[in-house]
């Protein structure tokens, strides 16, 4: 046997990822928030990138619109501040925006009523108290005091609880109204005896309300757990709102898709450095500027490709899942990454990157993109039934059972309907739905 070493040439084709392709794939995987941070980091290190910040009004309106129809029927593209939400400034997430998002959920309010509540919101101070006079508001908007009070109560129903109160007493009473476990004496103590509680006049209060000193002290401890400054709750326990990457709507039976890039700054090339590149004679400086110009153009193209890819994938998703926009999750059909990859003529890994950590705003709420990819089970007719629909069938059977159905019995019923499913699969779905085994489920009377 010849064991001598020999040199041989071998032709092997491999896909080499250039820095441009790597950056493009990285940008594709970013969520909208990550992309915004990445853009700002690149702009900080590249003098040729110039950022134009998005309009704070546009961001405010968009955030409110995402939470529901706020009734602003007039376009603001003409620059006319006709909608009350146009009056709100501030580019960062604030108490004002937090309250506007809740106002956007209100249905049945007139334009004037919304304007009044927006005015109230603009007159909530840094700790959450209302600082405008109701008589002045009534005169300003030509309303009665009763109408103003009712509109203020709408604001006071928002989170954080106690917002829009005019003083400490009202703030605490609003909170007590939402507390099911509040002691009976808590409300009258807050309304009439805060000063006595502060002075620890427990004996006098116990005598007046025919109770014990210990009970008075217990009520005081409960009141002390309430929040005298509603804004503190927003500052320290702020709810994290999901900002969707795409918005999908159904208009006259047609699926409308748009990229939600309202928070992204617009990129352009700095004209000063662009002119310097044309006129400068220094070779080293020119090399630096050319490199930075290439990086800037690469970033801009990468963002454009990201949007195009995500839009294309979403379009194919809702060609399949259009009924979801009307009927919700129960209407989701089986769909695989492979299916979308073939339709969009993309690699499966590219589709996976594109849907990673992305969210879609729909008429049924905000959902991760991955939720629209649904596994299925084959039926006798050769069709694929979605696991969501099968789980719904199992849920309905268990909720309507006259006596507990075993997993095998449920499997038999489904198989009689043409759905090929094993007992262990039924058991798995039952557990995911939160139901106990048949032997542990209480029999219905």
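^ Assign residues to that structure.
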């Amino acid at each position: 046997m010849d064991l001598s070493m020999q040199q041989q040439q071998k032709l092997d084709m491999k896909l080499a990822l250039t820095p441009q392709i790597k950056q493009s794939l990285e940008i594709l995987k970013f969520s909208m928030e990550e992309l915004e941070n990445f853009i700002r980091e690149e702009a900080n290190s590249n003098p040729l990138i110039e950022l134009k910040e998005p309009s704070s009004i546009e961001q405010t309106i968009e955030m409110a619109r995402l939470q529901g129809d706020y009734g602003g029927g007039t376009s603001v593209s003409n620059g006319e501040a006709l909608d009350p939400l146009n009056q709100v400034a501030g580019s960062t997430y604030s108490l004002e925006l937090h309250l506007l998002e809740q106002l956007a959920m209100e249905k049945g309010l007139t334009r004037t009523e919304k304007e009044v509540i927006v005015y109230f919101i603009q007159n909530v101070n840094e700790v959450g108290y209302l600082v405008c006079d109701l008589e002045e508001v009534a005169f300003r908007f030509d309303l009665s005091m009763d109408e103003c009070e009712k509109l203020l109560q709408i604001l006071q129903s928002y989170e954080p609880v106690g917002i829009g109160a005019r003083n400490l007493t009202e703030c605490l009473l609003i909170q007590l109204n939402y507390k099911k476990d509040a002691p009976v004496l808590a409300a009258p103590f807050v309304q009439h005896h805060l000063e006595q509680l502060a002075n620890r006049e427990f004996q006098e209060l116990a005598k007046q309300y025919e109770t014990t000193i210990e009970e008075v002290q217990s009520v005081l401890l409960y009141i002390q757990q309430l929040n005298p400054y509603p804004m503190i709750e927003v500052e320290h326990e702020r709810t994290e709102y999901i900002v969707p990457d795409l918005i999908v709507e159904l208009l006259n039976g047609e699926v409308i898709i748009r990229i939600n890039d309202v928070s992204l700054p617009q990129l352009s090339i700095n004209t000063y450095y662009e002119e310097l590149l044309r006129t400068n004679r220094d070779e080293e400086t020119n090399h630096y500027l050319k490199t930075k110009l290439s990086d800037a153009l690469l970033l801009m193209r990468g963002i454009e490709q990201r949007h195009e890819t995500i839009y294309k994938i979403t379009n194919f998703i809702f060609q399949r899942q259009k009924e979801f926009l009307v009927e919700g999750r129960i209407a989701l059909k089986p769909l695989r990454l492979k299916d979308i990859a073939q339709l969009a003529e993309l690699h499966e890994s590219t589709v996976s990157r594109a849907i990673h950590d992305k969210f879609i705003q729909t008429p049924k709420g905000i959902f991760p993109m991955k939720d629209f990819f649904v596994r299925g089970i084959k039926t006798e007719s050769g069709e694929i039934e979605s696991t969501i629909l099968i789980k719904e069938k199992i849920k309905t059977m268990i909720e309507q059972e006259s006596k507990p159905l075993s997993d095998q019995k449920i499997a038999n019923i489904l198989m009689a309907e043409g759905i090929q499913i094993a007992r262990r699969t039924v058991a798995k779905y039952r557990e995911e739905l939160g139901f106990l085994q048949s032997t542990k489920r209480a029999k219905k009377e």
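The radius of gyration is 31 Å.
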